Structures are given as structure tokens and as C-alpha cells.
Amino acid sequence: MSNTPTTTIGKRAVVCQDTELKGEIHIGPGTVLHPQCKINAECGPIYIGNNNIIEENVTIINKYPGKLIIGDENVFEVGCFVEGSKIGSRNIIEAKARILGSTSLGDNCVIGAVCSTNKDDEIPDDTVIYGDHHNRRTQTATSSHQSSLHTRHLDYLREVLPKFNHVRVGGSNTETSPGTLPKKIKETSH
């Protein structure tokens, strides 16, 4: 039996080959990882839930010995940086936003573009961080319409990304070349 870190990819998940995956990483069903993402389970495993969207140049790193658990239906926009100890569900981490240290993020939160949390922060549910001074407020209404848009966005990405990128498709050991049908990939034991 090998002590080699593993990556598991759930059914209907799409992971572009250009994604850098290091350490023990579990990618939930339906999650989409765009090219140039970096997921680094440096000190402990990373568990990514179902139906998350992780866009280009996102870095998610676990610098702590415990598990970094990411909930379901989150959007990590281009160039954001995530450390943290827990990320809830249905959050939006906007472009170039930063979640620092062992921060714990609740559900239905928005970290605005270029905003950051404090290091080792506890962010309650429905928090919005916005503006030049990283102001905070609480959302008073959440939209069921948002969930419908998220689902349509995932369906679109699952259709389009394999047309233009080499991808690993969840639930099988196959990869696709842009615009082709899936083919078997070799299992490696690095």
C-alpha cells in the first residue's frame, strides 16, 4: 500500500488538465475546475463539496494539519486566494479576493472583488465584505434565482470546457482532448 497523496474526482465533475493538484484532494460531484487553478493540500487534506465553480488562477491552499472543508455551490472567481479552515456553502469569492489564515466562512457570504478577510477570522452566515476598506454588512435576502443561475452556469461549463481544454471527467479514469470523445488515461502512482 502506498503513502502517496491521492486525488479523487466525483461524478460529473470536470477538472481541466492544466490544474495543479498537490496532496490529498477530494473533489465533489459536479464541481468544475477551470485551467490554471492551484489546489495545494500542503499540510492537510482538502475536501471540495458538490457543484462548486473554481475559475482560472484560483489558489486554494491548506497550510494547517486539519481538513480544509469547502461546502457546496460556491463560486471562486478569477485570481482569488483561499486559505481558511472551513468554507461554507453558496458563497461567492469574487475576483482577486483573499481569505486569509485559518478563517472560517459561513454560508451565503460574498467576499467582494479585491477584498480580504482578517487573518484567522470567523465570518458569520450572510456576511458581505465590500469596498476599499473591506466594510461588512449582513445580507437580508437571499435569492432562489441565484441557485437556478448557478445550475445553468455549471451545465454550460460542463459542455464548453471539454471542447477547448484537456479535461479529467469525474467518475471515470478518462481524459478528453479538445473537441474529441473521451479516452482512457494511465493511472500514475506519483
From TrEMBL:
Task: Write out the coiled-coil annotation as residue ranges.
Answer: none
Question: According to its UniProt record, where is this protein located?
Answer: Cytoplasm, Cytoskeleton
**CDD domains registered for this protein in UniProt:** LbH_Dynactin_6
Gene Ontology cellular-component annotations: dynactin complex
Keyword entries, A-Z = Cytoplasm, Cytoskeleton
Tell me the domain of life. Eukaryota
- Region described as Disordered: 168-190
| Record carries keyword Zinc | no
GO MF term set = dynein complex binding
Q: What is its main location?
A: cytoplasm
Q: Which GO terms describe its biological process?
A: mitotic spindle organization
Family, according to the entry, reads as follows: Belongs to the dynactin subunits 5/6 family. Dynactin subunit 6 subfamily.
Record function comment: Part of the dynactin complex that activates the molecular motor dynein for ultra-processive transport along microtubules.
Q: Please report the name of this protein according to its UniProt entry.
A: Dynactin subunit 6
What is the organism of origin for this protein?
Diversispora epigaea
